[in-house]
User: Which sequence fits this backbone?
DNA sequence: AACGATCTGTAGTGATCACTACGGTAAGTC
DNA sequence: GACTTACCGTAGTGATCACTACAGATCGTT
């Protein structure tokens, strides 16, 4: 049963992957509106009817692109669980920087969708925002682990600042190309976030005393 | 002569402004591809032929939107020229934060265009990248004023980091809405950039000794 | 061999795209 | 009043949009 279904769908799965590959390329070049089914069809060599057999509509296709890109991006790094806080932050920022260099499609397309504010929100955008919110929560928890005496507002600020830096540096790399040393900048950013944590912890203690 | 030309074009100038208003709204909602001439025409109440009388083509229209938005954004803030470096940075970040809150169209549309990498680059995107490069140079010069002993690479890194923070925080505000306190985050970022300057200056001196 | 499920190929649908041809109108110039 | 300039309105152009109807093709199952 498992064997037959694998064989049955072997061709289909390959086609699905080809379609997603093409759609990923085009969407991260031209955004949501710029990704036409015709273009995707031409680039992957399959007719439009095949695309619509695998995906309900254009929105579903782009959402699937986001989902797959995010999965790949996630699997490219992991949260370290030992060492000093400084070491762990340094290790994590390095991994995120590397993951962004190796599979930038996820964040590029995600940011393009996030910046758009169309009247009817496509599911693709919703999906990215959901993923992003999840990441924000994890960042907040990591911050709480490292400096437990911060209050809720400070933790939010810290997580937001950390993610904003990552977004901004990614954009700098996308625009600046090879002239931007992403790992070095991420390293700097990691240290800045730790400093910010210390600074915020200080002002929290000042308010308490 | 000047009077007549003013009177002659009075109606036209108003129409041009109405077209730009509508195009700005739509473009910052839906991006380049999502901005259709038909939609702009409906929103500004003028027929497509009027749009094409005022602008050569869609690309020219969007480029004009960028240009006007940038002008408005620029006029919303100025570089302070007195006080300690810390004060000047704090003042500047505050003004930039306020300008971004009041006229976010420029950066939102600009970032959307910058993230796209279409085969044939529209002039609108080129124009934004040019404006951005100019800002980067000014940031670099400001950094050089404040810590003259930094080497070229460190200055580039600092300017890139400062701009990346601004971009990232702007995005956080766009996505997070009212739950994001942009001035507070910009204030934090300003202090972080100063700390980064000190840190980079230190490592420069270490290398020299 | 017969059959149903999975996928592809052909050939469209009406809607919307960027853009234009062209006549009309109002105002300024002479 | 004749003429030019500046701008708007009507009504299109062919191309491309997302999407679909439907007839094969290929396959494992029976």
Assistant:
């Amino acid at each position: 049963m498992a064997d037959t279904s694998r064989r049955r769908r072997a061709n289909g799965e390959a086609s699905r992957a080809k379609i997603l590959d093409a759609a990923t390329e085009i969407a991260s070049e031209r955004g949501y509106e710029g990704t036409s089914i015709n273009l995707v069809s031409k680039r992957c060599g399959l007719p439009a009817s095949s695309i619509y057999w695998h995906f309900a509509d254009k929105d579903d296709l782009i959402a699937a692109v986001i989902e797959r890109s995010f999965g790949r991006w996630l699997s490219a790094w992991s949260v370290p669980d030992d060492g000093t806080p400084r070491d762990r932050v340094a290790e994590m920022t390095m991994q995120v920087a590397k993951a962004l260099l190796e599979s930038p499609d996820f964040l590029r397309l995600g940011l393009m969708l996030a910046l758009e504010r169309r009247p009817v929100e496509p599911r693709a955008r919703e999906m990215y925002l959901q993923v992003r919110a999840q990441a924000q929560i994890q960042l907040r928890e990591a911050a709480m682990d490292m400096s437990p005496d911060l209050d809720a507002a400070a933790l939010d600020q810290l997580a937001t600042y950390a993610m904003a830096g990552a977004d901004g540096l990614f954009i700098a790399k996308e625009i600046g190309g090879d002239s931007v040393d992403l790992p070095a900048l991420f390293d700097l950013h990691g240290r800045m976030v730790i400093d910010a944590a210390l600074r915020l912890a200080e002002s929290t203690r000042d308010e308490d005393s």
Remarks:
- Chain A has two domains: 2-62, 70-208.
- Residues 4, 7-8, 11, 36-38, 48-49, 52, 57-58 of chain A lie near DNA strand D (CB under 10 Å from a C1').
